[in-house]
Amino acid sequence: MNKPVKLKEVIESKIKNNVFYKLEFLKINWVDIVGKNLAKKSFPLFVKEDVLIIGVTSSIWSQQMLFLKNQIIKNSNLKLNGEYIKNIRFKVSKYEKTINYIEKKQKVKREKIDFNNISIQPFEIKQLKKAIEFIKDDDIKRHIYKVSVLNKKREKYLLENGYKKCEKCGELFVGEGKICILCKNDIQKENRRRIYNKIKNNLLITYTEMKYEEKYLTKIEFEDIKNRVKDGIYREILINIKELKYKKARDLLEKYFILDSGTDNKRVIFEKIDMFFQSFT
Predict the structure, then answer these.
(1) In this predicted model, what pLDDT tens digit does every residue of 155-165 receive, in sequence order?
(2) CA angle at residue 35 from 34 to 39, to 5 degrees?
(3) Looking at residues 170-191, what average pLDDT do you find?
(4) Last residue of one domain, picked from the residues 132, 163, 194
(5) 105 and 116 inside one domain
(6) Residue 88 is part of which domain span?
(7) Domain match, 107 and 118 both
(8) How do residues 183-216 score in pLDDT, each as one tens digit?
(9) For 177, left (φ over 0), alpha (ψ -120 to 50), or beta?
(10) How many domains does the chain have?
(11) pTM for the complete prediction?
């Protein structure tokens, strides 16, 4: 005999597994979570897995909210009635874009949506019913089905009123392009990580050579990532010197100066290494 499913458990499961529900709960309660002043300068932008992305009007506000990070996480989870948010990140938006976003959100909230005039397709109804097949209690099943239908209709309404569905993660968002800002950030991070490793494994690679493989890479980005590789190697050098591992430090210095000078000429590199140790001591 199957154990009956409790309504509270089903709803909590819905919240836990559906970022749309999480985000809506946070938007509704945002003033209570961060306070009136911060609510005027910020808004919950996305929820991805257990990370809440907060839109802010300037980096000043992101710094101020960073000090309240733990409290914001705690307040968010209290409103969600579970440990769903474990980290927060901030995305600075231009003031005009932020205001447009808020105004669009307020417009949607002010308008009373007539769900009866929004229709969903038979195949969508079939999908919704299939998603709740596991629920044995008929009353609970009807309740969750009703909520799911309203959610689907609301999604359609939002898509008709300026929202888009991210082509990568499927979440609704307001903004430019075909993918949400979170997915853009993830793609950018992955690209930078890939370029970082390419530079680390080929210290003499030039921007022109890299451009053949990474057509959207700018020279400024290339130089920035190259400097990050250098900084990483330099930190390793200092750690090894501190631990009196001079041979390892010397090997790393060779890599560092090849990257820094753009040449692997042994005489030039060894001279730089010797000068480094003389200046260091």
Answers:
(1) 888 888 788 88
(2) 75
(3) 81
(4) 163
(5) no
(6) 10-111
(7) no
(8) 887 888 889 999 999 999 999 999 999 998 888 8
(9) left
(10) 3
(11) 0.54
